[in-house]
Amino acid sequence: VLPIWNVWGRGPFNPARARLHTGPQQEHKTFYEFRTYSIHPHQNAAFLKLTNEKIHLRTAHSELIGYWTVEYGGLNQVFHIWKYDSYSQRAAVRAALAQDPTWISDYISKALPMLTSQDNEVTYLVPWSRLHKPPKEGVYELASYQMRPGGPAVWGSAFQAAICARDAPGYGKLLGAFHSEFGALNQVHALWWYESADHRAEVRHKAHNDARVVAAVRNSVTHLDTQRNRLMHPCLFSPMN
Protein backbone atom coordinates (compact mmCIF):
# COMPACT_ATOMS: atom_id res chain seq x y z
CA VAL A 1 0.00 0.00 0.00
CA LEU A 2 1.37 3.41 -0.92
CA PRO A 3 2.32 5.52 2.13
CA ILE A 4 0.40 8.62 1.09
CA TRP A 5 1.90 10.90 3.72
CA ASN A 6 5.24 10.60 1.92
CA VAL A 7 4.08 13.43 -0.33
CA TRP A 8 4.36 15.86 2.58
CA GLY A 9 8.06 16.20 1.83
CA ARG A 10 9.01 12.61 2.65
CA GLY A 11 10.06 11.25 -0.72
CA PRO A 12 8.75 10.23 -4.13
CA PHE A 13 5.42 8.61 -4.87
CA ASN A 14 3.83 6.80 -7.78
CA PRO A 15 1.18 9.10 -9.35
CA ALA A 16 -0.69 6.21 -10.99
CA ARG A 17 -1.17 4.47 -7.65
CA ALA A 18 -1.68 7.72 -5.74
CA ARG A 19 -4.95 8.34 -7.56
CA LEU A 20 -6.37 5.27 -5.85
CA HIS A 21 -5.73 6.65 -2.35
CA THR A 22 -7.48 9.80 -1.18
CA GLY A 23 -7.06 9.57 2.60
CA PRO A 24 -4.07 9.88 4.90
CA GLN A 25 -2.32 7.02 6.63
CA GLN A 26 -1.43 8.20 10.11
CA GLU A 27 1.73 7.26 11.96
CA HIS A 28 0.31 8.41 15.31
CA LYS A 29 -3.06 7.88 16.96
CA THR A 30 -3.31 11.37 18.42
CA PHE A 31 -6.00 13.48 16.78
CA TYR A 32 -7.62 16.85 17.31
CA GLU A 33 -11.34 17.47 17.33
CA PHE A 34 -12.37 20.87 15.96
CA ARG A 35 -15.70 22.12 17.33
CA THR A 36 -17.67 25.15 16.19
CA TYR A 37 -20.76 26.31 18.10
CA SER A 38 -23.13 28.99 16.84
CA ILE A 39 -24.91 30.90 19.60
CA HIS A 40 -28.20 32.78 19.71
CA PRO A 41 -27.14 36.44 19.42
CA HIS A 42 -28.94 37.50 22.58
CA GLN A 43 -27.33 34.59 24.49
CA ASN A 44 -23.74 35.15 23.42
CA ALA A 45 -22.56 36.90 26.58
CA ALA A 46 -24.43 34.47 28.83
CA PHE A 47 -22.93 31.45 27.05
CA LEU A 48 -19.39 32.77 27.39
CA LYS A 49 -19.93 33.60 31.08
CA LEU A 50 -21.33 30.13 31.80
CA THR A 51 -18.51 28.41 29.90
CA ASN A 52 -15.87 30.47 31.68
CA GLU A 53 -17.32 29.43 35.04
CA LYS A 54 -17.90 25.75 34.25
CA ILE A 55 -15.24 24.75 31.71
CA HIS A 56 -13.34 22.94 34.48
CA LEU A 57 -16.10 20.34 34.48
CA ARG A 58 -15.23 19.53 30.86
CA THR A 59 -11.44 19.78 31.06
CA ALA A 60 -11.50 17.29 33.93
CA HIS A 61 -12.22 14.65 31.28
CA SER A 62 -9.87 15.51 28.38
CA GLU A 63 -7.32 18.04 27.20
CA LEU A 64 -8.43 21.39 25.82
CA ILE A 65 -5.96 22.92 23.35
CA GLY A 66 -7.69 26.24 22.78
CA TYR A 67 -11.04 28.01 22.96
CA TRP A 68 -11.79 31.15 20.96
CA THR A 69 -14.56 33.58 20.06
CA VAL A 70 -14.80 34.37 16.35
CA GLU A 71 -14.43 38.07 15.57
CA TYR A 72 -14.38 37.99 11.75
CA GLY A 73 -15.55 35.16 9.51
CA GLY A 74 -18.46 34.02 11.69
CA LEU A 75 -20.76 35.97 14.00
CA ASN A 76 -21.77 34.70 17.44
CA GLN A 77 -19.52 31.65 17.18
CA VAL A 78 -16.96 29.91 19.34
CA PHE A 79 -14.29 27.54 18.07
CA HIS A 80 -12.41 25.04 20.23
CA ILE A 81 -9.87 22.24 19.80
CA TRP A 82 -9.70 19.07 21.92
CA LYS A 83 -6.87 16.54 21.90
CA TYR A 84 -7.38 12.76 22.07
CA ASP A 85 -4.88 9.94 22.07
CA SER A 86 -7.27 7.52 20.34
CA TYR A 87 -10.86 7.05 19.27
CA SER A 88 -11.42 4.72 22.21
CA GLN A 89 -10.28 7.47 24.57
CA ARG A 90 -12.76 9.91 23.04
CA ALA A 91 -15.56 7.34 23.30
CA ALA A 92 -14.72 6.82 26.97
CA VAL A 93 -14.70 10.58 27.57
CA ARG A 94 -18.11 11.01 25.93
CA ALA A 95 -19.52 8.12 27.94
CA ALA A 96 -18.15 9.60 31.18
CA LEU A 97 -19.64 13.01 30.39
CA ALA A 98 -23.03 11.46 29.75
CA GLN A 99 -22.88 9.97 33.26
CA ASP A 100 -21.53 13.10 34.99
CA PRO A 101 -24.49 14.64 36.87
CA THR A 102 -22.68 17.90 37.65
CA TRP A 103 -21.67 18.42 34.02
CA ILE A 104 -25.23 17.80 32.90
CA SER A 105 -27.01 19.89 35.53
CA ASP A 106 -24.55 22.78 35.88
CA TYR A 107 -23.47 23.21 32.27
CA ILE A 108 -24.81 21.22 29.36
CA SER A 109 -28.51 21.52 30.25
CA LYS A 110 -28.06 25.31 30.40
CA ALA A 111 -25.69 25.72 27.47
CA LEU A 112 -27.50 23.70 24.79
CA PRO A 113 -30.61 25.95 24.65
CA MET A 114 -28.26 28.89 23.96
CA LEU A 115 -26.90 27.28 20.77
CA THR A 116 -28.32 27.31 17.26
CA SER A 117 -25.94 24.68 15.86
CA GLN A 118 -22.89 22.54 16.59
CA ASP A 119 -20.34 21.17 14.16
CA ASN A 120 -17.22 19.05 14.57
CA GLU A 121 -14.34 17.73 12.51
CA VAL A 122 -11.60 15.21 13.27
CA THR A 123 -8.15 16.33 12.17
CA TYR A 124 -4.55 15.19 12.41
CA LEU A 125 -1.44 17.31 12.40
CA VAL A 126 0.28 16.93 9.05
CA PRO A 127 3.63 15.11 9.48
CA TRP A 128 5.76 18.21 8.87
CA SER A 129 3.92 20.27 11.49
CA ARG A 130 4.04 20.33 15.27
CA LEU A 131 1.67 22.03 17.67
CA HIS A 132 3.25 25.20 19.08
CA LYS A 133 2.25 27.60 21.81
CA PRO A 134 1.92 31.31 20.99
CA PRO A 135 4.81 33.52 22.09
CA LYS A 136 2.49 35.89 23.96
CA GLU A 137 -1.06 37.23 23.95
CA GLY A 138 -2.47 38.03 20.53
CA VAL A 139 -5.08 37.11 17.97
CA TYR A 140 -5.47 33.89 16.01
CA GLU A 141 -6.43 33.09 12.44
CA LEU A 142 -7.81 29.75 11.33
CA ALA A 143 -7.33 29.50 7.58
CA SER A 144 -9.28 26.57 6.13
CA TYR A 145 -8.66 25.31 2.61
CA GLN A 146 -10.97 23.00 0.69
CA MET A 147 -8.62 21.28 -1.72
CA ARG A 148 -9.66 19.39 -4.83
CA PRO A 149 -10.20 15.61 -4.62
CA GLY A 150 -7.12 13.43 -4.74
CA GLY A 151 -5.67 13.91 -1.28
CA PRO A 152 -2.15 14.95 -0.29
CA ALA A 153 -0.71 12.68 -2.98
CA VAL A 154 -1.92 15.33 -5.44
CA TRP A 155 -1.63 18.64 -3.59
CA GLY A 156 0.31 17.98 -0.37
CA SER A 157 3.69 19.28 -1.50
CA ALA A 158 2.19 22.46 -2.96
CA PHE A 159 0.23 23.15 0.22
CA GLN A 160 3.29 22.61 2.39
CA ALA A 161 5.37 24.94 0.24
CA ALA A 162 2.75 27.70 0.39
CA ILE A 163 2.42 27.51 4.18
CA CYS A 164 6.15 27.31 4.83
CA ALA A 165 6.81 30.22 2.48
CA ARG A 166 4.75 32.39 4.84
CA ASP A 167 5.95 30.87 8.10
CA ALA A 168 9.72 30.88 7.53
CA PRO A 169 10.13 34.65 6.98
CA GLY A 170 7.82 35.43 9.91
CA TYR A 171 4.66 36.47 8.05
CA GLY A 172 2.70 35.22 11.03
CA LYS A 173 3.51 32.44 13.50
CA LEU A 174 2.26 29.01 12.43
CA LEU A 175 0.95 27.12 15.47
CA GLY A 176 -0.19 24.01 13.61
CA ALA A 177 -1.26 22.63 10.22
CA PHE A 178 -4.02 20.01 10.18
CA HIS A 179 -5.62 17.61 7.70
CA SER A 180 -9.22 16.45 7.97
CA GLU A 181 -10.10 12.82 8.64
CA PHE A 182 -13.83 13.14 9.39
CA GLY A 183 -15.93 16.04 8.15
CA ALA A 184 -15.24 17.62 4.78
CA LEU A 185 -12.51 15.54 3.16
CA ASN A 186 -9.51 17.04 1.38
CA GLN A 187 -9.63 19.93 3.83
CA VAL A 188 -6.56 21.42 5.48
CA HIS A 189 -6.27 24.09 8.16
CA ALA A 190 -3.49 26.42 9.25
CA LEU A 191 -3.70 27.97 12.71
CA TRP A 192 -1.77 31.26 12.84
CA TRP A 193 -0.86 33.70 15.62
CA TYR A 194 -0.40 37.46 15.30
CA GLU A 195 0.21 40.22 17.82
CA SER A 196 -3.00 41.96 16.69
CA ALA A 197 -5.38 42.28 13.75
CA ASP A 198 -3.34 45.25 12.52
CA HIS A 199 -0.15 43.17 12.78
CA ARG A 200 -1.80 40.56 10.57
CA ALA A 201 -2.73 43.20 8.00
CA GLU A 202 0.84 44.52 8.02
CA VAL A 203 2.57 41.17 7.50
CA ARG A 204 0.01 40.07 4.90
CA HIS A 205 0.87 43.18 2.89
CA LYS A 206 4.56 42.33 3.12
CA ALA A 207 3.90 38.71 2.09
CA HIS A 208 1.99 39.86 -0.99
CA ASN A 209 5.15 41.64 -2.13
CA ASP A 210 7.43 38.65 -1.51
CA ALA A 211 8.06 36.92 -4.84
CA ARG A 212 8.82 33.59 -3.15
CA VAL A 213 5.49 33.62 -1.30
CA VAL A 214 3.57 34.70 -4.39
CA ALA A 215 5.06 31.88 -6.47
CA ALA A 216 4.31 29.23 -3.84
CA VAL A 217 0.72 30.43 -3.39
CA ARG A 218 0.10 30.52 -7.14
CA ASN A 219 1.26 26.92 -7.40
CA SER A 220 -0.96 25.87 -4.48
CA VAL A 221 -4.18 27.58 -5.59
CA THR A 222 -4.34 25.42 -8.72
CA HIS A 223 -5.42 22.65 -6.32
CA LEU A 224 -7.81 24.84 -4.29
CA ASP A 225 -11.61 24.94 -4.50
CA THR A 226 -12.52 27.31 -1.67
CA GLN A 227 -10.94 29.04 1.32
CA ARG A 228 -12.36 30.39 4.57
CA ASN A 229 -10.59 32.52 7.17
CA ARG A 230 -11.64 33.26 10.74
CA LEU A 231 -9.98 35.80 13.02
CA MET A 232 -10.42 34.78 16.65
CA HIS A 233 -9.80 36.02 20.18
CA PRO A 234 -8.88 33.52 22.92
CA CYS A 235 -11.22 33.12 25.87
CA LEU A 236 -9.81 33.83 29.31
CA PHE A 237 -9.68 30.11 30.14
CA SER A 238 -8.11 29.06 26.84
CA PRO A 239 -4.73 27.26 27.21
CA MET A 240 -3.71 29.12 24.05
CA ASN A 241 -4.16 32.66 25.30
TrEMBL record:
Family classification: Belongs to the NipSnap family.
GO BP field: mitophagy
Short name of any one Pfam family annotated for the protein: NIPSNAP
All residue ranges annotated as the NIPSNAP domain in the record: 32-130, 140-239
Gene Ontology cellular-component terms listed: mitochondrion
Name by which UniProt lists this protein: Nipsnap homolog 3A (C. elegans)
Gene: NIPSNAP3A
Species: Oryzias latipes
PANTHER family listed in its UniProt record: NIPSNAP-RELATED (PTHR21017), PROTEIN NIPSNAP HOMOLOG 3B (PTHR21017:SF19)
